[in-house]
Design brief:
Layout: E1 4-8, H1 20-38, E2 42-49, H2 54-62, H3 67-84, E3 91-94, H4 98-113, E4 117-127, E5 132-134, E6 139-142, E7 145-148, E8 156-165, H5 171-180, E9 185-186, H6 188-199, E10 205-206, E11 208-209, E12 217-218, E13 221-226, H7 228-233, H8 235-238, H9 248-253, E14 258-262, H10 266-279, E15 288-291, E16 294-296, E17 299-300, H11 311-318, H12 320-330, E18 337-338, H13 341-371, H14 383-394, H15 396-404, H16 408-429, H17 438-459, H18 464-471
Parallel strand pairs: 1-2, 1-14, 2-3, 9-15, 14-15, 16-18
Antiparallel strand pairs: 4-5, 4-8, 6-7, 8-10, 11-13, 12-13, 16-17
Length: 511
Amino acid sequence: MAENFYITTPIYYPSAKPHMGHAYSSIIADFFARVKKIQGSNVFFLTGTDEHGLKIQRAAESKGKDPKVFCDEISVTFRDLSKTLNLSNNDFIRTTESRHFKSVENLWKILEKKNEIYLSKYSGWYSVSDEAFYSEEEIENIDGVKKAKISASDVEWLEEESYFFKLSKWEKPLLKFYDENPEFILPISRKNEVISFVKGGLKDLSVSRKSFSWGIKVPSNSEHVIYVWLDALTNYLSALNYPDISNNLYKKFWPATVHLIGKDILRFHAVYWPAFLLAADIPPPKRVYGHGWILSGEEKMSKSKGNILDPIEIIKKYGLDPLRYYLIKEVSFGNDGNISKEKLENCINSDLANNYGNLCQRVTAFNEKNLNSEVPKNISFSNTDLKILDNFKDNYNNLIEYTNKQDINSYVNYIIERLFASNKYFNDEEPWKKKNDIDRLNTIVYVSLELIRKISILLYPIIPDTSMKVLKVFNINEDKISFESIKNNNFLKKGQKINKINILFKKIEKL
């Protein structure tokens, strides 16, 4: 039976237009969705927008707009970004949808029925920007302003009646869960951070607000709005038509395979979320992966700092696939990374134009000139040929393992290594000197075409548009891409016509 694979991005807060950090999370999630699909999995890929909370209410008020109207306008920019980034998502969820209200209200009722929630009073530090509560130890004073250490966001003192979730009760069960599921939190550095936080002692969590109205009301008390994170996290269930757990979507895809998130929201996903779910007798997700930030200089991008990089502008200038490739290859997955014009242009010239584009151009042009744009017919593999072709079969299981463990860096490094090896093979074998040995010439060209096909399949989750241009040279359509076919050395049909290929990437001239 095919594996079921459910991957989610964070749902984005539409208080301002999307930036490069949003694009990065989405592109990475799309990579995994695409690679698992061509590996034969049943894939469900979710993204969307988180539209409740005081931050949204204040942003709407500052524009003189109703919060729902405000969210409608900005949420569409995130939906449009999904199309611009060529995401393969199955669904786009908004927390203002009725299906989401139904899910959140049901989860609240279960927690209340199980006596996991009680009414009391909250007093402490709260960040509107992060929609998060912080202890005294997590606050610092900078130039007379109280800020959260983790995010540098301003905090304000808050006192109001609130419902609390008995988070302290789940300290030991959470530690037991982490121990029994050692790969629940990745990378390992993030796991250690979470375990240290939980071992430091968990306090009951305020899960409602009374001082504003923009959110989902507590079912049993309409004076209270459900805490935005309890609301937002439930989106991962809402998209599967929860609370109807008998439906096919829920049965196939829950628990989620991977929640892909930024490291700044790790605590909500790796502590609060599994605690809510365990308390409600719902299985937690299989994995939470906290990736690093896309930096602007040395700082995290944020509207308040005015250091936003607009992915749309980068795409207009350089193209989508170069941006996708750059973010996937140059940012060490799990760590912080930054984007610069110089690095991006070097990446386009070196990897995409010189290595991949040049290989495709040289081999297909040689084929057109010498073999009438046909896949060679009479071939006989030498040991050298088999060694470079079989490398894909020999590393097939490793590549599967890389994707299962979200080890993007090893996956990309393998492709780059194969590109260098393939270019070297074509240079060393010198088919242009083999015109008196037509069988050898045929074999070199056939092997080179097969290498291009295999590499293009591996590149498809990274640069889908460009790789499809290459695969269509061999009349391979998107729905026919098979990851397993990289093990096949005789996939191309002898005598098949090869379509002409145009320049894939234009080199950027340096001044």
